[in-house]
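README, section 4: Worked example with a bound small molecule

Sections 1 through 3 covered apo chains. Here we extend the same pipeline to holo records, where the ligand is supplied as SMILES alongside the sequence. The molecule in this example is coenzyme A. Nothing else about the input changes; the structure line simply encodes the ligand pose together with the chain.
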Amino acid sequence: MRFMTLGDVNTVLKIEQAIQAYPWTCGNFTDALNHGYECRVDEQDDEIRAYAVLMPVLDEAELLNIAVAAGQQRKGLGRLMLREILNAARQKNTRRVFLEVRPSNIAAIALYRSLGFAEIGIRRGYYQNDHDKEDAVMMACDLTSSKWSDAGKGQER
Ligand SMILES: CC(C)(COP(=O)(O)OP(=O)(O)OC[C@H]1O[C@@H](n2cnc3c(N)ncnc32)[C@H](O)[C@@H]1OP(=O)(O)O)[C@@H](O)C(=O)NCCC(=O)NCCS
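The generated complex, written as structure tokens:
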């Protein structure tokens, strides 16, 4: 895993547009980079396979985006990426990480739960879809808990 750069944005955007129903724009990624958020990519043989964006807020953080390229899903990359970005945050003394996810996104919710995220609430009508709104499930992960620390141990590459 390495830091995302502005030069990666076009590639990341292609992956994003191929897999997300409501993809981030180029501006979303460049803003995240320019604000100094934790933007990481996983790359193999010069090919970006996954990325994640985490926004630090004092001793907490918000996971804004995580995605794995279409042909690379269900190989453990999403879990690896999430675990590594949480490990990096924990080393910078981040205590809790929050996120919002569509209730329909079964894959992402299962991934988040597997690394210690728990549901903490619902934001009504958080997502604007084409014709209606969709609620968001709010989740949080306590990075100080021994459960997560043990799960993350030895996973940094
Ligand atoms: C969510 C996402 C990042 C998961 O990445 P991945 O590399 O495919 O996931 P992994 O192979 O690491 O799997 C980790 C866990 O996630 C869950 N999971 C992943 N894909 C799943 C699917 N299609 N159905 C159900 N559970 C799934 C499983 O619990 C899995 O653990 P298991 O393999 O031990 O059963 C990927 O599906 C993705 O990029 N989706 C589109 C973007 C997105 O929705 N991002 C999240 C919101 S921003």
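What to look for in the output: The CA atoms of residues 61 and 89 lie 8 Å apart. The chain has one domain: 2-152.

Section 5 describes how to batch many such records.
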